[in-house]
């Protein structure tokens, strides 16, 4: 508690002369003289610059500090909380405090009507049966580190936040803003703008935020949509800064029944979408009408609507740059004389369409797997697989689908900005060529790389598989394989002999017969030697596990068995093969079947292969581990 008081004192000192600190120390929704300060009482003090019951006097743009929820707390509201003056409401964290309506309260949680700045930070609003936050007027509204969960405006717009036009919009000389930073909007619903609805000339900025499972409920095709965000301005002003969505994620928003409507619906404005992912949304990720803007460094993956981006109206022009489209219905459609210009994009099994006079143009450096409907420039790469890796986090916080190290899109473009969806930035030397200023096509830039050269020798043939990418380097005709791999990372290369060959061993950076482990702190070269077998016989290793949770790795000398990945290999007839077993923690080697000789204190098996053979290793649970740890 002393630490909390000290933090409050430091915040109070930082407020300056024209603001006061008001500490809320009660989770009741009341206005009574009990020497405690409720949130409702604190807002009276802040709105009218007075001391009110147990709350300190407000003065200017006050800070209301919610001294609640250090272990989780709830404020249940009987009616809306009004905000009439500048204020910052600071909570203890979205996991620690939630504002919810009482059973009899079907209205808003907050109503904001002020010409001053308002900030909400670090608490949660949930379960509202109307738009959670209604804005009549505000200068700058900042929503930061907030969570809006399951707010449902059944007969209204904007499940979490609504800003409605009231016939007279603000002047461009007095720009007002809605800023949403590092916040989460989940399972909110409304007729339009499932999470956010803004029909006013406020400047919208969304950054670092997640929109998941939000929905619009109106099925009428003439109703504008936006299951996550709806933003419309009264006038398209080219001198004004764009509305922006940066470094955010939209996952599973919309519905299959309303798939032609937008997850994000922009109308009559300038817009910029940057470093943002749209993943598995049933609704169309972006619908733009009379919009001039840019979509860049963004991912559209697995969205089930007919298109990932729809552009409408002769007043609309979108530039789509360095973005990745995979497994959507189609990537782009330009309708009603609108224009879409492509540069540096990856179109993997996604095409483009035009309708009623729309235009799709290429500004170069796009790659398209399939029919060339999105590409038309001489620098485009058509009918070529970009070789995307699976969707995942890859050590970051944003879902990405990176390029394989051997993708033709690596370092295949020019003219990018400094950003990519992974957050590491551009340009980087992903192909280890040392070429200046080249960018990868698509949303994700591969890291700076050093080249690994895998040579092949001997009378036999085989391949090397780089485990981390499941990437096969073959050695047919003794052709070297060159793979650019991220600098200072470690990789494992597994050798696999072709039928009629056997792996002999490594040379160069690796030696011996075990898998080659190499750290790419410079350019590296390794060599795999395979020998042809005159009279091949096949050895198969079977793991007989007492239960499926146990694990064991079996390797062979000569090389070939690495089981793990390869439990069958060919050897020369009459070869003497030694198998070595390494049990994982919690497992014991209990014996071998069909061995000529048990060695290594039961951990190994030696056999002469006069014909095809199967050897079984028996694995049981370690009773000492079970006794010590139970069945956890």
Q: What is this structure's SSE topology?
A:
Layout: H1 2-14, E1 21-24, H2 39-48, E2 62-66, E3 73-77, E4 81-83, E5 87-90, E6 97-101, E7 110-113, E8 118-121, E9 124-126, E10 133-137, E11 140-144, E12 147-149, E13 152-153, E14 161-163, E15 177-181, E16 184-186, E17 189-190, E18 196-199, E19 203-207, E20 210-212, E21 215-216, E22 229-232, E23 243-246, E24 249-251, E25 262-274, E26 277-279, E27 284-296, E28 299-301, E29 309-312, E30 317-321, E31 324-326, E32 332-334, E33 339-343, E34 346-348, E35 352-354, E36 359-362, E37 367-369, E38 381-382, E39 449-457, E40 462-466, E41 471-474, E42 481-486, E43 490-497, E44 501-508, E45 516-519, E46 524-532, E47 536-545, E48 552-557, E49 562-563, E50 568-572, E51 576-583, E52 587-593, E53 597-599, E54 604-608, E55 613-621, H3 623-629
